[in-house]
């Protein structure tokens, strides 16, 4: 493996993982009691998507370039819709919990239970934060199949470590913010969706 391939792949991984990093912070905020196994499953999901998308893009560049050009303008809209759905759900749960606490309702562990990601919500997050990585396959179109695979593996590994860091940060902040964590997490997800949409549509 050449040094150039390694450096390029690491830099791509860092850049592509920033959205997943922000979402990881939101997930950690929403579940301050998250166990290590859960953290690895969430970070691993994001890493898996970030690995797959560049490979899919690399395959498409030789098989269906025209299809991708048609699909490309839809990417920011898809990310926006998915993150609005997930973030809106977190925001709704957080507001309801805050209202109950202000009304003097009994405190329980409901916040940590409702905040936990379902399988499908996690899949939606994975798609929303990695779909723009499809375009990376076009930047690596000159790679052979082994180089493309290695590059995608490096991108996935970088994403794994960055998302684990994001989950730890979010979990610690969640302990400090208590019941307001779900609200903040939902706002972060909505903000990420809007940021992806603005960059994709206007820049």
String of helices and strands? HHHHHHHHH
Class computed from helices, strands and strand pairing = mainly alpha
Number of H/I helices? 9
Q: What is the mean pLDDT?
A: 79
Please indicate the count of domains.
1
Distance between the termini: 34 Å
Please give the share of residues in helix.
over 70%
Low-confidence region ranges: 106-114
Quick one: how many beta strands? 0
Coarse morphology: globular
Radius of gyration: 18 Å
Largest sheet: none
Amount of beta strand: under 5%
Description:
It contains 9 helices and no strands. The chain is mostly helical. The protein has one domain. It has helices spanning 3-30, 36-63, 65-71, 75-102, 110-115, 119-130, 136-139, 145-177, 181-202. Helix 2 packs antiparallel against helix 8 (145-177) and helix 4 (75-102) packs across helix 6 (119-130). The longest helix is centred in the last third of the chain and has 33 residues, at 145-177. Helices cover 83% and strands 0% of the residues. It is globular and about 65 Å long. 44% of the residues are buried.
Question: Any key phrases for this structure?
Answer:
mainly alpha, globular, single chain, 203 residues
Short description:
With 203 residues, the protein is mostly helical. The chain has helices spanning 3-30, 36-63, 65-71, 75-102, 110-115, 119-130, 136-139, 145-177, 181-202.
């Amino acid at each position: 493996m050449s040094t150039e391939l390694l450096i390029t792949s690491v830099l791509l991984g860092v850049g592509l993982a920033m959205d997943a990093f922000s979402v990881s912070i939101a997930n950690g905020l929403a579940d301050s009691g998250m166990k290590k196994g859960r953290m690895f499953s969430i970070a691993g999901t994001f890493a898996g998507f970030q690995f797959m998308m560049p490979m899919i893009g690399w395959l498409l560049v030789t098989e269906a370039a025209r299809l991708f050009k048609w699909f490309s303008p839809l990417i920011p809209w898809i990310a926006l819709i998915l993150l609005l759905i997930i973030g809106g759900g977190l925001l709704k749960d957080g507001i309801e919990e805050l209202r109950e606490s202000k009304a003097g309702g009994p405190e329980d562990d409901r916040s940590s239970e409702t905040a936990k990601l379902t399988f499908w919500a996690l899949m939606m997050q994975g798609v929303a934060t990695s779909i723009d990585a499809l375009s990376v396959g076009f930047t690596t179109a000159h790679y052979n199949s082994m180089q493309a695979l290695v590059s995608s593996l490096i991108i996935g590994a970088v994403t794994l470590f960055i998302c684990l860091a994001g989950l730890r940060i979010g979990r610690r902040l969640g302990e400090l913010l208590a019941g307001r964590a779900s609200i903040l997490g939902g706002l972060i997800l909505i903000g990420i969706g809007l940021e992806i949409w603005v960059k994709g549509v206007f820049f």
